[in-house]
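Entry:
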Amino acid sequence: MTESVDTRVAVYIDFDNIVISRYDQLHGRNSFQRDKARGFDSDSKTADPGVAERLAQATVDVGAIIDFASSFGTLVLTRAYADWSASINADYRGQLVSRAVDLVQLFPTAAYTKNGADIRLAVDAVEDMFRLPDLTHVVVVAGDSDYIALAQRCKRLGRYVVGIGVAGSTSKSLAAACDEFATYDALPGITLAPPHTLATARNGRSIKGADATATAAATTAPSSEGTDTPGVTTSARKGVPEISFDPGVPVESAPVAAKKASRRAKSAVKGADEEPEAEADANDPQELATHLLERALRLGHEKDDADWLHNSAVKTQMKRMDPSFSEKALGYRSFSDFVKSRDEIAELDESSTIQLMRLRS
């Protein structure tokens, strides 16, 4: 939040890497390959509801990644590399396009296509650094050690390198090669995986059969207890696996297709009908603006490690995350009035002549 307004950021996402790593983190090493998740079709009559449930649990919130990258400056390009004809990747296309992400198609030329995204991503990144001399930051979303040389070259060419990867699947050498490295679980707005789920994954076991049914029941059961930790529900704190997405991004905060997959999984396991009311609430402009403000404040506190943030810096971050944001379009005369209407989330410093605000604890 304190970086110069001249900072310009390029984001490169090895999409297969982040999706597979997240799935294996939650459900055990090599579980993505074992469950044949790449070619899984949730619409098929023979689809395993257990796999559908595990895919929904392992959904990656790309919006949180892009928002974190935007905290370093203006995003001048964002690219995601994958085979978008694969069903698991195709489910994310709508969300990625809505965030102006350039989808780079990697056509499978063989059954085993290791390093396909690595090489294409690295070539594009080096070319962009020479083509765009005003580029100041490079964000690489992957944990593969193959990107160490790219990170070193970016630093040699004078760019600030930020890495984002999934805990447990990230090379320590890659983290050391970056100027800054963040784990996916630590990004603002990401709900932490239940401890016992990670323990199960570390033991190489995944939730299957009757366990998946119990998981779905626990996920959809209403809780009578409140939430005192932002972004983490009571049942999640008690260790119950839960599909929870943070709607902090105004344009489809969590992958729409993942929500559909989650509902299909619940329907297949429990025989329940879909409930469209949640989607209607998620599209309310006032609610979207509230979550946008909350995520911008979290990013600001994490970046600056300060108690109070300048109002202008928070608004700038919100505009980076959603250029369509306008407090006047929401019916407020000024940004301060908009913040005052969200006093359950934001606190204004009335004692200072400088307009300051912070996330209410």
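Residues 61 and 320 are 17 Å apart (CA to CA).
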